[in-house]
Design goal:
By secondary structure, the chain is mainly alpha-helical. It has helices at 21-26, 32-46, 53-57, 65-84, 87-90, 94-115, 130-135, 142-148, 155-171, 175-186, 197-218, 225-236, 241-248, 250-253, 258-266, and strands at residues 59-62, 122-124, 153-154. It has a three-stranded antiparallel sheet. Helix 4 crosses helix 6 (94-115).
C-alpha cells in the first residue's frame, strides 16, 4: 500500500559521523580519547531498544493527494451521515454530543477508511538540514527551514493507521459488523466530563453485545474473531486526530479546523 523505496528510507545511523570530512574539519583539535567516546555514544544511541532514531524522524506525504483526499472527504461525509442517523445520539444533551464528536470523529473516520477500502501510497518528505542550508547559503534565516520542515506526517503515525486497515481487511468485516463497531466508537463512555456517561456506557455495551452475538452466529468456528476486532478498535483510538487532518485533508484544503467544521455540520439548524 504505502511503498517507499529502500534507498530513500535507508537509515543513516550506521554512517560514522566522527569519520566524516565535515566533522574532522570542525573538530580537528579533538584528541583520540574524545573521538573514541563519541564513536561509542553514537553506536549506543543506534542500538537502543527503542529502535533507530532515524525512523521516528522520517516523515511522509500522500503520493497522489488529489485522489486520496477526495476519497477521504467522501468517507468524512459518510461519517457525519452515520452520526446523524443515530437517534440515541441526539437524545443526549448537546454538551455530551459535542464531547463525543470531539473524541470520536478520528477513529470513526479511520474505521470508514477501512470500510470503504481506501488504499493510498506514500512518498518520503525530504527537508534539507539547517546546516546544509547555511553552508550552501540557500536560505535567508533559520525560520525558512523551520517553516518548510513542518510538512509531512511522522511515518510511525501513518504505520499505526496502516496496521489497523490491514487488520480489518484481513478479517473481511461485513456491513453490519461495521455498524456495531461504529456504535461502540461513537458511544465512548471513557470520555470525562459527560453529564450522561452512564447512558452512553449502556449504549456502548448494547453495541458491543450485539456485535458479539452477530459474530458468534456468523463465525461460530472462529471464536477469537470478536476479540481481534476489540483489540483493533482499542488501537484506532490511539491515533492522533491532528495527523489525520494533516495527512488526508491539509494537502487540498490547507489549514483547516476539521473538528470545528464537523460540529457546525452536525448541529446546523
Amino acid at each position: 500500500m504505502a511503498y517507499i523505496s529502500e534507498q530513500q528510507g535507508k537509515c543513516q545511523c550506521n554512517k560514522d559521523p566522527v569519520n566524516s570530512i565535515l566533522f574532522q574539519m570542525l573538530n580537528s583539535g579533538l584528541n583520540t580519547e574524545t573521538t573514541r567516546s563519541l564513536q561509542s555514544n553514537h553506536s549506543l544511541i543506534c542500538s537502543l531498544d527503542k529502535g533507530c532514531p532515524c525512523e521516528s524522524n522520517r516523515k511522509v506525504l500522500l503520493k497522489s493527494p488529489e485522489v486520496t483526499c477526495k476519497k477521504a472527504s467522501e468517507v468524512l461525509l459518510k461519517t457525519v451521515a452515520f452520526i446523524r442517523n443515530v437517534p440515541s445520539f441526539y437524545q443526549l444533551p448537546q454538551d455530551d454530543q459535542i464531547l463525543l464528536v470531539q473524541n470520536c470523529w478520528a477513529p470513526l473516520f479511520v474505521l470508514g477508511l477501512a470500510q470503504e477500502r481506501v488504499d493510498f501510497e506514500l512518498q518520503e518528505h525530504f527537508v534539507p538540514s539547517l546546516l546544509k542550508k547555511i553552508l550552501l547559503n540557500q536560505c535567508e534565516n533559520v525560520g525558512d527551514v523551520a517553516l518548510k520542515s513542518d510538512g509531512g506526517v511522522p511515518i510511525t503515525e501513518v504505520q499505526r493507521i496502516q496496521r489497523f486497515l490491514y487488520k480489518f481487511w484481513s478479517l473481511d468485516i461485513c456491513t453490519k459488523e461495521y455498524a456495531y463497531l461504529k456504535g461502540m466508537l461513537l458511544f465512548n463512555s471513557d470520555i470525562s466530563g459527560m453529564k450522561y456517561s452512564h447512558y452512553v456506557h449502556r449504549l456502548q455495551l448494547e453495541a458491543q453485545y450485539t456485535l458479539m452475538e452477530f459474530t458468534s452466529m456468523m463465525h461460530s468456528q472462529n471464536s477469537i474473531r470478536f476479540m481481534w476486532m476489540l483489540e483493533a478498535i482499542d488501537s484506532v483510538k490511539q491515533i492522533d486526530p491532528k495527523f489525520i487532518t494533516k495527512l488526508f485533508f491539509k494537502p487540498i484544503s490547507g489549514e483547516i479546523n476539521l473538528e470545528e467544521l464537523l460540529l457546525e455540520t452536525l448541529f446546523v439548524k
